[in-house]
Every structure is written in C-alpha cells, then in structure tokens.
Amino acid sequence: MLREQMKEVELLILGAGWTSNFLVPQLEDAGIAYAATTTTGRDGTIPFKFDPESGDAEPYKRLPAAQTVLITFPLVGHNQSKALVGLYRSAHGAKNNWIQLGSTGIFNQLVDEWSTSDSHYDKHDKRAIAEDELLSLHGCVLNLSGLYGGERVPARWLSRIVKSKEDIQKRGAVHFIHGEDVARAIIATHRKFTPGKRWIIADLRVYDWWDLIMSFSAAAESSTAEEQQLGQQCAEWVGELMVEGGIRALPRNTSTLGRKLDSRGFWQYHSTWPQHKRLA
Residue 135 domain-assigned? Predict the structure, then answer.
C-alpha cells in the first residue's frame, strides 16, 4: 500500500477496507498521492483507530496533511464528526476537505416515492445525524447503494436474503454500485469538491429483486448442491408469485416496485457516468 509515511498527500483514506481495493489502483493510475490507515497498520498502512471518547490529538499528528480526507467507516450520533475533524485540524490546519461514505438506507421513507440527493431522509438515523454534522462542517457525504465487486458477489447472496416465499414476495426495488464506480465517484469529488452536499451514488438503474433472484438461481447451478437446491426453490417461488400476481414477465414495471433512488444528480454534476451500467 504505502512504502513510507508521507508528510503531505492529496488524499488520505481513513480505513483502508473493501473500498480501497478499487480506489488505490485508480489513485495510482491518476498520479494522486495518497496515504491510508488501518487499525493494525497492515500492508504498509498507517496504524490509526478513531476513538470517539478521546480528545487526544497525538494519534492525528502521525497522519499526513491531506487536501481531502476520506472516511470509509461509519460515524454515528452527535459529536463524532466534530471530534474527528477537529482533532485532525488541530494537528494539520483547516485547509482540508472531508468526504464521508454513507448508506442510501436513510432515504426512501415514503412508499412509491423517488428519492434524489435532495430528498427528505431519516434525520433521526444515527448515521444520518453524524453525516449532517459533517455537512455542517462543509464536508461532503456520498450515500452508496448496494456495493458489489471483488469479494462482494450478489449472486451468492441468495441464502442471506431468502428464507421463505414470503421473503421474496415483499421484495421490490433494489439499487447497486460497483466498487470501481465508487472509486471514480470519490476521485471526482476530490477533484471537484461540493461542500455541504449529500449525494446518492448508484448505477442509474432500478433492479427488480424478483428478476435478480431468478437470475441468481440460475447462477447457483455452478455452486454447491445446497446452493443449487436453494436456487431451484427460489425460482419456483418467483414463478408461483408471478402467476398469483398476474405478472406476465420480469422485470416488473418500475412503478410497482415501491421506493426508488434517482442517482442522476451526482453523475451529471461531475460530467461522468458509471462504467458498470448493469449488475452482471
């Protein structure tokens, strides 16, 4: 990851987890100087762990100064964003931009509604509270839809998302974003920062869970015997539900899928579009 600790970088990644697998190669290709932290300092990263109960600035002095600081781990509730930003700035000054990765789960509080980046959201959600606090400090929040890529393979998720026919029946719309497009979104925000702005990040598509489950059941044929059995059962349940509901073909009409996300705003603002335009 990082061979030696640098005193100043363009982008500092606080928490080099799944996202960094896609972000680091793009940073290197773009020639953007970066540093990254992990709690253990593995793979040449800087050891760092945010302690919301500590006011000690010493751990922040070991971090490099950065133009942009990316927070990949969730902050929750009041004062955590203020503490993290304040302690870092006490060591490196206030000339830095902050990006928080969040979840689109805070949106879509009303059934059958489209949510844009400017739509209402659950302001009582603990993550949303921390995100709002960061926005008040002129940070930027990227609310990510379902993450996939690398070790995250949605076709392997059947056993996690389906336990019964009723589980399938209640599922409507779902949204995704590939890790490579998450990385592209982060770099775009670094280059053209939007202070105090929250964005929805998705691949511009609305997926029908029934359609995906049927596709995943076909993919299960190359898996274990148990996964194949579950895949076949899920396909049968989807078929039965289509007959029972008078659904002639998949995917179902978007208007019937309930709550949906409109992610055009971010991509239009940055004059770019997702490269992974469909979940494969």
Answer: yes
